[in-house]
Amino acid sequence: MNFSKSLILWYLQNKRDLPWRNTVNPYFIWLSEIMLQQTRVAQGLPYFLRFTKAFPTVFDLANATEEEVLKLWQGLGYYSRARNLHKTAQQVAFEFNGEFPRTYAELLKLKGIGEYTAAAIASFSYNESVPVVDGNVYRVLSRYFDVETDIASSGAKKEFTKLAAELLPQGEANLFNQAIMEFGALQCVPKNPDCGNCIFSNSCLALQKKKVASLPVKSKKTKVRTRYFNYLVFLDENTNTLLQKRTQKGIWYNLYEFPLLETEKELTETALLELMQNQPFVTNKVLNIHWYNSETTVHKLTHQHLNINFWKIVVKGKLEKGIDWESAKKMPFPIVIYNFIEKERF
């Protein structure tokens, strides 16, 4: 069986109709690849459509403010992708006159574009014979060829890239790369793949050796950190509130949030009020304080589990730097705060 030909034939018969597959425009392909990193297609597709409507060209994206980009990205997560996206758009627009480089090697010189994204653009837009290697490709190749190399090891990327390069059919890099990624997304899925209805059921080594569930090998475990966030939702006599911008590097950088007290454990109202005495958030007298939540909101990120509580802090008079809710809603928030605002219908 010719692996590459069979895979491409499967792709042509089974591929999903996605907007970035109906173009060779490198701007749209680049957008889709950045958005779909660590994101499912079903989740990423609405964002792609909104972005291409708001920013139909790389110049439109480059000329937007970072806050406009982050607001449109709100809820997609991994916000550093959005910030890097904006910077790359500015580089392409202002240094390259809106033209994306046409080779893998030149694409790598752009800020925020790594080996995977450069290979995707080079092969999808320009049909350059460079392999694309992502999680789907690791899974398909490791199972079909029974490769037990730990994909978290230092040499794995080089080994799998070499294997994928050997499989690339001449002049069909575009089709093959999309085919193997789609096959991993739809057929050779991480858990409980339908091997009985697979085109490779007679030639897949992992299936023959009953190793499908154990491949690919990935030994490193992600260490999860637990944090406790207490958001102070101040309300003055005009129902204005306070917001602050996260300026420290880390999660949600440059997004807005309510004043935050991070603690080692969950707090009672009395403990929170005591802790607030030493904070510079507000000088107004506190009239009332209570818990908004019926229970703690647990927001799970890749490396962190955030236990989030929202506290209603009613104060006397007017807040010096108070902001009305209509203005506040235009700002980019972490999705957990945006959902809270929408739920409470401020």
From TrEMBL:
All copies of the HhH-GPD domain together span: 35-186
Alphabetical list of InterPro entries matching this protein: A/G_AdeGlyc_MutY, DNA_glycosylase, HhH-GPD_domain, HhH_base_excis_C, HhH_motif, MIG/MutY, MutY_C, NUDIX_hydrolase-like_dom_sf
Per the record, what are the reactions this protein catalyses? Hydrolyzes free adenine bases from 7,8-dihydro-8-oxoguanine:adenine mismatched double-stranded DNA, leaving an apurinic site
CDD domains the record matches: ENDO3c, NUDIX_DNA_Glycosylase_C-MutY
Describe how the cofactor binds. Answer: Binds 1 [4Fe-4S] cluster.
Q: What is its EC number?
A: 3.2.2.31
Q: What SUPFAM superfamilies does the database record attribute to this sequence?
A: DNA-glycosylase, Nudix
Which stretch is the leader sequence? none
| Taxonomy, superkingdom | Bacteria
Keyword annotations from UniProtKB, A to Z: 4Fe-4S, DNA damage, DNA repair, Glycosidase, Hydrolase, Iron, Iron-sulfur, Metal-binding
Cofactor(s), by name: [4Fe-4S] cluster
Is Iron-sulfur found in the keyword set?
A: yes
UniProt GO molecular function: 4 iron, 4 sulfur cluster binding; 8-oxo-7,8-dihydroguanine DNA N-glycosylase activity; adenine/guanine mispair binding; metal ion binding; oxidized purine DNA binding; purine-specific mismatch base pair DNA N-glycosylase activity
On whether Ribosomal protein is a keyword of this UniProt record, the answer is no
GO biological processes: base-excision repair; mismatch repair
Task: Report the enzyme's class at the first EC level.
Answer: hydrolase
PANTHER family linked: ADENINE DNA GLYCOSYLASE (PTHR42944:SF1)
Q: What does this protein do?
A: Adenine glycosylase active on G-A mispairs. MutY also corrects error-prone DNA synthesis past GO lesions which are due to the oxidatively damaged form of guanine: 7,8-dihydro-8-oxoguanine (8-oxo-dGTP).
Q: Which family does it belong to?
A: Belongs to the Nth/MutY family.
Q: What is the name of the protein in this document?
A: Adenine DNA glycosylase
* Native source species: Flavobacterium rivulicola
